[in-house]
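Re: [help] complex structure
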Amino acid sequence: MADTLLQINGLKIEATVFPPGEPPQDITIVDGVSLSLEKGRVLGLIGESGAGKSTIGLSAMAYGRGGVRITGGEVLVNGRDILPLGTRGLRALRGAEVTYVAQSAAAAFNPAKKLLEQVIEATLVHGRASKREAEERAIALFAKLGLPEPETFGNRYPHQVSGGQLQRAMTALALCPQPDLVIFDEPTTALDVTTQIDVLAAIKEAIRDTGVAALYITHDLAVVAQVSDDIMVLQSGRTVEYGSTDQIINHPQEEYTRALVSVRSIEHKEKLPTDAPVLRVKNITARYSGTQFDVLKGISVDLSPGQTLAVVGESGSGKSTLARVITGLLPPRDGTIEFAGRTLASDQKNRPREDLRELQMIYQMADVAMNPRQTVGTIIGRPLEFYFGLRGAEKRRRIIELLDEIEMGEAFIDRYPAELSGGQKQRVCIARALAAKPKLIICDEVTSALDPLVADGILKLLLNLQKVEDVAYLFITHDLATVRAIADSIAVMYRGEVVRYGPKSEVLAPPFDDYTDLLLSSVPEMQLGWLEKVIATRKMESAGN
Amino acid sequence: MRNIPISALIGLVFTGVYFLMAIFAPLIAPYGLAEIVGDVWEPSSSVHLLGTDSIGRDLLTRMIYGGRTTIFIATAATMLSFTTGAVLGFLAATVGGWVDQALSRFVDLMMAIPSLIFALVVLSVMPVTIPVLILVMGLLDSTRVFRLARAVAVDITVMDYVEAAQLRGEGRIWIIFREILPNALSPLVAEMGLRFIFMVLFVSTLSFLGLGVQPPAADWGGIVKENKDGIVYGIAAALWPAFAIATLAISVNLVADWVLNRTTSLKGGRGG
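Output below.
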């Protein structure tokens, strides 16, 4: 224990919130959290959004984001309490002894400056190396992180490299001053699975070779299991469980940890396709106006009534574009769409109301999919009024019925979206789609923005509703665990083409084509040593590289 | 609503007083509007609180009636400019394409001509009546509102909830008034406060130049014009309307600032 680098004792963090129409209130975000981290080790902080994990991470730099105040406890870095340090002392600490890797590298880099300038900036400001030394160090880091052409990589601008590369460049930025401690705040959350795995491997290797200590913050237990030595599970600002990675993954003690470990355990029995599909996409080719590039190339898929077709692929594979073509927001250049036995007009504006009603859509970001100035009752009630002409008491009765169906209840009818949690918002969006009594709902990444446990609840709800309402889902996602949980048939998309398509049992059974193999093997599994195993056996590099 | 900051409270009180005086002018005013009740430029006394004007009319009476005219014209012109500007701005943003181009370029053209000069040219060939004044001021100013409304609405039209309404098959009227307007209201309301004050200044300027409200009717700009010669002799009569314009401007802006603060952020606003 001689080499304890970071020691946090009884940390308490508060913030002032301003609820609309009420006087400001003080709330406690983090309460009584203690941890210690030795040199060269990695501690994973895990929890749902709002658990306080990022707030704890930033407290290791004595920083409180947006009105957050550290009100109790002590934070010792190298045996020195950093909370009483003034601005000058903190400035010497941040970016030198302790550095930070943010979630969105794209937002964290200055688009007007070359990468190398930004990577060595902190090192130079703190006088931790001469310019020449810093550049050499940065280039060595680029090479270690597996970036292409490390000698010249730094001469590019942020927009000239991919998201995965940018995230690695930010890791280089954090490691360049040779800090004692690096805070990784969800560094791979915004990346595709196939890219995530490369970044993860690069980060792990860099941590091991440079011997820094790291705090690794994430909501994904399977990811943290690959990189950390110890794990702390947090819920609502309190420690639920704190132990070695092996103990947390293989022998979780607390109920909550067990729930996190066993998430995505939905059993769904695959249904066989029928002869009369509700949706038949025939040979669709599409491009966005003003471009010379086909985003979709000859896509053909079928979907039977009351079943789920999962469309899987990385970002840029064209899966959301397919949804836009089916809904008629982007008329295709070629091909037709048959829906319930009739051919749909290619432009949404020319479709009769009945077609619009039977084809509904649920979005990824529930926050922006609902008008913030309308109540839940108005949001769900509008389709009832619009398609069925329901009014007054009859409409209210149906709204309450729908609210019960999404397991929320009458009490929510007068609430505004801002007063709902992320999962509740998505449920309201589901109710709005159901209100139209559709035959098909297009679900565009509906669980991607949610915490695992909440996403699980949404998926179970969707499956139940499918049984009751006999509605078909076209489920667009990049998450294979979700696909396994709910799909009847699967279409794997890669660069605008369907590379594999069929019933779930066939698509997910070997022999695989190279891309499906890469995609399947990249989904982090809840077991130790998985990362090394996968990296050693992969056939193909991710497209983001 | 309970936590109104002190600055907004002051603004609300003064704005309220000015509007009440405007509404109840005939009841409050001690004399008739065009009644000559004393000598030229009498100093203030218990009979004439603010003294008399250049031809011996009671200045307080003139101020109250003048405020009525000024505030009425400014309010009506603001309403007109907001209705036209916002509706056309929202339309340009939702329809897009050549409609947007045509409207936006026309507005650019209008804004290229200084509005005071434009107004003077128009008013010199038209009969100067109050409806004409309101129409000219309102339409000229609606170009500014158009710009703001279009910019705000363009940001809103790309939101998923507008797309969801479109996919539902909603018409343009519903999308403009139910999806976009409620979300664009707060910047528009804040802008309305500022625009109202610009209208007060605009109508006062026109009257001062002789192309606004015509005598014997009173308005604040006109009162300055009638009494400006008195300043040379140390008579303060021309300063009262200036003072009124300044206090009204400040108090309306205090209220507008408060509305802006309250509504821009759903998290309680800046500063408090």
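The mean pLDDT of chain A is 86.
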